[in-house]
Queue: 2 jobs
Job 1
Amino acid sequence: MTRQSIRNLFVLLATVILFLPPTLFGAEQADVILHNAKVITVDEKFSIAEAVALKGNRILAVGTNEEVLKTRGEKTELVDVQGKVVMPGLIDSHTHASGAAMTEFDHPIPQMDTIADVLAYVKSRADVLEDGEWILLSQVFITRLKEQRYPTRAELDAAAPKNPVVFRTGPDASLNSLALQLSGIDKNFKIPEGARGKIERDPATGEPTGIIRDGSQYIKSRSPRSKPATAQDRRKQMELLFKDYNSVGLTMHCERGVSPGIIEDYRALDREGRLTVRTAMSYRVLENDPLDKIVNTVRDVARNPLIKGEGLLRIIGAKFYLDGGMLTGSAYMLKPWGVSKIYAITDPTWRGSLFIQPDKLTAMVRAVVESNLQFTAHTVGDGAVHTLLDAYEEVNRSIPVRDTHPCICHSNFMSKEAVEKAARLGVVMDFQPAWLYLDTRTLVAHFGYDRLRYFQPLRSLFEAGAIAGGGSDHMQKIGALRSINPYDPFLGMWTTVTRKAKWYDGRLHPEEALSREQMIKFYTINNAYVLRAEKEVGSLEPGKLADLIVLDTDLLTCPDDAIREAKVLRTYVDGRLVFERK
């Protein structure tokens, strides 16, 4: 054989080797490779790559097309995404998914934008229920009705004269005359000294107006007859909801307030391979219980095997309720709410409801931190936010709280001081941008623009070094935009960037708008941190869990209004394709 022949043979062999799968020579083989992409990694440098490889439920490689394609093997699925965006799966840090999935199991509930819509629904229920059966309508918020008020006692009487009616907006409610009568709430009714609740009364007559704040314990309602739901019914509805979560790019959420029954539903779905969204859980602990019972419950939670994780499930902490709501007129504020026709507030000194006194709150926080759990509480008003931050600060004097990712749920009304203290202590927050979108019109009408300077102060928190993430507080219905508190993350993203709102001209304090990178972090790595999962999810890096999405829109460069119209093309959870848009 001539020297030239030998040279030609070596060239031929080198060419063959070049086109053989590198895995033949010992490199690890990918199960799936997504290439020809714009990969927004959300790593520490916010790097942009071209391809990502998945192996099992983990990310094997991220980099250029050439680098990542070296992991291909004979059985590797190659997905050419043709220049589309690949990014970490989106995370919702606050849902009530198990309950939301069942909202319309008995009957559909229409969208209600006006008092007339509310009364029409009440009448429709009266038409199908027997006389005397209760009509219960929950979470239709007065801030989102065009009239911006509660339906009156007289209006509810006219719509359902022979049925007791409760229009509940959260901790507060409006009742008709029969509901008041059956509950024993009349001119002479008094709330026991030191007990929670407030009965609004006509200033002239002293008669109850029908509006009760934080007084569900005084309403003697019974659930109307409805279609019974089995465990399988509940799980089927949850499965449907989670598939819809996947369709809008959600790969992880946190159910804020689970019970043993809810946990078992999740475990059953996970065992059966029907759970398609990674789930963190905050265990609901009753703040009204005696302190020793609360401490024992917290310790029991800390011993639950799900603390260490199981499949797609993990318990991360305990959830409490600290104050009322901004949508109902009962959030605990630093300054009085002010007399209001919108919220039916007649007391000029009313500051809202604080459910846990500071000393007890501090002891509760201490018990949770000592158990290495995340403490979180429904905390809306700036008075409540300051109260919880003070408790965190007091506990932090003897036990560092930062490593437990102490949380504030909602944290809507803040102050410059609260922002700085949260950053210093390592307190995290889960916000609901959809509340800004849906409720700004009413909030400005009541509080005025200036008092809302630190309403959802997202940019201030980013600049201070605090960690905040985006949630929905999804509590009713299946449907990303028809749900009560919509869970479409792209609406939330658009809101954080534009600070624009429904039925409101202008922008609410645009100085608090996020940049595009911050917007993406808000729903990915920041939320992963909020849920104590930042080492596993939230960015696309080798070794992390393979939760990712493919989008039709480049969220970094598209026009603002295109953000809310973005569509998910593919969703992977734990390395498994759980949604593909046909």
Job 2
Amino acid sequence: MKKKSIRDKLLKNFSLFSLIPVIIFCIVMLLYIASNVQGKRKDSVCSDLEHQATQLDKVLLQAYQIGQTVAEDEMVNQELAGSFKSERQRYESEIRLNSQLLGISRYFDENIKVYIVGENGGVYKNSPYSLEEKEYEREAWYEQIKESGEPSWFELHSMSYFVKTEEKEFISLGIPVSEEKTGRILGCVMVEIGVFDILHTAETQEEQGNLYLFYPDTNIKIIDGQVELYDNDRVTLIQKDGIAGHEQVEAEQPEILETAKFLTYWKKDFQEKGFGQVARFVTAYQQLNANDWILAYSMPKVEYYRLLISVLIVSVLVTVILILIAYSVSCRVSGSITRPILSLKEDVEKVQEGNFEIVVSCESEDEIGELAQQFNEMVTEIRNLMDRIQTEHERQRHYELLLLQAQINPHFLYNTLDSLMWLIRMENHADAEKMLEALTRFFKTGLNKGREIVSVKQEISNVESYLTIQLMRYKKKLSFSIAMDEEIRDFKVPKLILQPLVENAVYHGLKGKEQGGSIAVDCRKRDGVIVLCVSDDGLGMDEEQRKQIQKQLSEGIVEESESYGLTNVNERLKFFFGDSCTMSVESAQNEGTKVWIEIREEEVYVQNRDS
């Protein structure tokens, strides 16, 4: 009891001593990250967003410049003011204006595409894509531009208004074209800017947050993944694979609302850029100079402060490790005497569980060391005794299987001799001589110099000899075919595994069938599995009888019955191949029977073994 009390005191003192530096370390690390790392993280997010906003602003300003240039171009006004008396005039007008647009826009960003829609029905473009066939002057955006009478920005949309293209995420600018003297609307210039590459290049997109375009005080129709907020303000959610759909926007609704509240609160006195925290999110924003839209990036606070959380987790782990080290040292000091006894106790428990490979290593030269040595000797003796018992069991099992195999040959020999007797009685000496020659060849091949293992080719040879004998007996009532993949001809199997199956097919499948039938032996390799199949088109069996045979095969029942040959072969296969070999039976009444042997080659642990 006294030693136990000292041990507890040591554990307590070491634990307290280890906690002090851990707590100090954690506090210092947290303060350092809060004052330095998080500041750099904020600057990085804002810098990435500013880079995106600058690129977007640059392209939008170019779009505005090219739109105004085209709208004020004299040739454009002349073409839109005229009318077309024929399709040829329309075609010539399109050629002239398309060339003019290509000349004007060649100095600007390639993502900017310019289209002109005239009141006279003309449509012009600088895009290489074909225009969609529709009446553009009846589109809602066209009506809006005519009504406003001034340049109008259209919110982010996922499809072009004019062409079908794999590009996605467009911002459009519409500028009306009017006659200088009368002010009559002649049409409009629509500038479409592909912004996908701009919005998905910054490092902020690798964070666990979302990018938004916020449109304050606009009155444009809501499309795609946009939602309306606060006095007609809207926000569009931009994801890595494009603009979010309605369902995605609904799923992100809490974050969108918090971001919009933050931006709406500041929009009356809006700074050009900034960073803030609202509820569960942090938001960086940057106002665009081209159209006063706001590009914002928002992420959950948990993600933003993940480094602090990681440091806290590491600090806890370090604390736990130090406590474990202190506990280990205390245990080593206080348990130097009891440890060998506890180790011996654990080894005894493992032996009780059946692990006889235990060897106790004890360097003590006292009574404990002597006890450990005697324990090792006892375990060794038990292990040797169990090995002898296992060897005797396997030897007994081997002899039992040899007996099972030996029972097949007399059965076949009896049937063959019976056939020979009938041939001799009928004085059919030529067939009798051929049958006797085939029988001699069968037994010569089957003996295989006393070996239990044969190749698939040898087993097929046995089957061929057997079927030759049966063919002479049943003549036109029997036909057979044998197929074998050359790839498996040398694969080793126990002998006499196919002949009993063929014999079953003859006597139980075809013998009772008046018009006879055929037998097929097929040996293949499919996906690493050796498949041996014996099939016939004989009488077959009902489902109840098939299930009974399959049950005997699954449970390893070997008994005198019509399925004795099957169960005998199945048991010998299990002995040589274990669980890597399975046998199954397919049959239907008056349709025949198939017996399948499947051997998973990669799992075979007994091959090429001779007795």
